[in-house]
Write a structure and sequence with these properties.
It is built from 5 helices and 5 strands; from the N terminus they run H-E-E-H-E-H-E-H-E-H. The chain is of the alpha/beta class and 149 residues long. This is CMP/dCMP-type deaminase domain-containing protein.
Length: 149
C-alpha cells in the first residue's frame, strides 16, 4: 500500500501540468508494471485539448498495447466512463489494454458526467482501489472549476 500511495501521489503531481480548462478536469496518470517500473505517464490536455490523462499515458505505449500481468494504472481522478470528445472512454481503453489494477484518489464528481468508471472497471474484472486520503491533493489543480472545489 505504501507503493500505491507514492505512485498515486506522483500521478496527482502530474495533474498540475494540465493546462486549466473550463470544460474538463486536470488529471495525472501513470501506467506501472508489476515490478513498480513506470511504463508511461500522462496528464490532461498533454498534446491536444481533448486528451485525458489515462488516454495520454496508454497512447505512449503504442496502438494495440497489451498490459503485462500485474500492470496498474494510477490516476488522480476516477477514470471516465462517458465522454463526448472521443470515441472511447478511459475506462474502455483500460479494459481493452487488459490492465489488472486501477488506483485512484478522487471519485469523479457529477460536474460534467455521472462517473461510473470504478463500477465498470470492477465489472470488467479489474481490481479497483480508491485512496481518498489523496483526494484533496487531486482536487487542488481543479480549483478553477467552481463546482469541483
Amino acid at each position: 500500500m505504501s507503493d500505491d500511495r507514492e505512485l498515486l501521489a506522483r500521478a496527482v503531481e502530474l495533474a498540475r501540468r494540465s493546462p486549466p480548462s473550463d470544460t474538463a478536469f486536470s488529471v495525472g496518470a501513470l501506467v506501472v508494471d508489476a515490478g513498480g517500473t513506470v511504463l508511461a505517464e500522462g496528464w490532461s490536455r498533454r498534446r491536444h485539448p481533448h486528451d485525458h490523462a489515462e488516454e495520454s499515458a496508454l497512447a505512449d505505449l503504442g496502438p494495440g498495447w497489451r498490459a503485462p500481468p500485474g500492470t496498474t494504472v494510477y490516476s488522480s481522478l476516477e477514470p471516465c466512463s462517458a465522454r463526448s470528445s472521443r470515441p472511447r472512454t478511459c475506462t474502455e481503453l483500460i479494459l481493452a489494454a487488459g490492465v489488472d489494477r486501477v488506483v485512484f484518489a478522487w471519485r469523479e464528481p457529477g460536474v460534467f458526467v455521472d462517473g461510473e468508471g470504478a463500477e465498470l472497471l470492477r465489472a470488467g474484472g479489474v481490481d479497483v482501489v480508491e485512496l481518498p486520503e489523496l483526494a484533496d491533493a487531486a482536487r487542488e489543480p481543479n480549483t478553477h472549476l467552481r463546482e469541483a472545489r
